[in-house]
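Re: the 153-residue chain
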Amino acid sequence: MAAALVLGAVTSAAAAADEKMPHFASLRVDRVNLRTGPGQRYPIEWVYERKGLPVEVTATFDVWRKVRDSDGTEGWVHERMLTAQRDVVVKGGLRTLRSDPDPKSAPEARAEPGVIARLLECRNAWCRIDAHGTKGWIPRDEIWGVLPDETVP
């Protein structure tokens, strides 16, 4: 049993060393504790209650990830609480999802600030998202959860 735990720690540490910083992830579950440091002995500073919320991973320590949310709040979460699934949050005011990555293309829907959507792809200044079954293109600067120069397949 102890060998399996040690092996798991080595595998996790090796995976952490391969992570590019910064990168985005999403909360895996509805309730995630944000701690002041990388370990359960550190106090809980905040509790996220929004599965899919995108966070920027800025550092690693063993099985802990330092994250920053769209409001700039930073802290540590356990790696099990994150998923590589890419989600974004709509920022600013009411935003228009378009049929193509062009401001003159037909509007598909409107998204309110704070809406969480699945990130499907990004091309230059535009990203295609799926907001609760409605897909469309939105300017990259109107969402949070993707790096400015990042290519998303």
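The chain has one helix and 14 strands.
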